[in-house]
Amino acid sequence: METNLIELLLIGIGIVFTYLLLSVYATQRKILEKLFLQEQTQPQAIKEECQPQTINVVVEANAVNTDAAKIAAVIAAVQHHTNLKG
After folding, report:
1. Are residues 36 and 60 in the same domain?
2. pTM for this predicted structure
């Protein structure tokens, strides 16, 4: 009786361990494909021509938007503080 329970326990642990191992492998593979496979789908000539200009435009746009957002936040905070006093 005791050996049957131990065997059943070991089989159950083996099945759970195998399932977890396969699920972690599948998830890791999907994440890696999502992150790194997108870069390989573009042809090399297009990558070299478009990438530096695109990055510069995005960085400049983010810098302008960030500065504008900071200024708007400061103005809103001052107005809110003024309204609370008055």
Report:
1. no
2. 0.37
What is the C-alpha to C-alpha distance for residues 53 and 47, in angstroms, rounded to an integer? 11
Domain residue limits at 64: 42-86
Same domain, 63 and 35: no
Question: CA-based angle 19:22:23, to the nearest 5?
Answer: 85
21 and 46 share one domain: no
CA-based nearest residue to 66, from 54, 76, 58: 58
pLDDT in tens, 12-69: 999 999 999 999 988 888 887 877 776 555 555 555 555 555 555 555 555 557 777 8
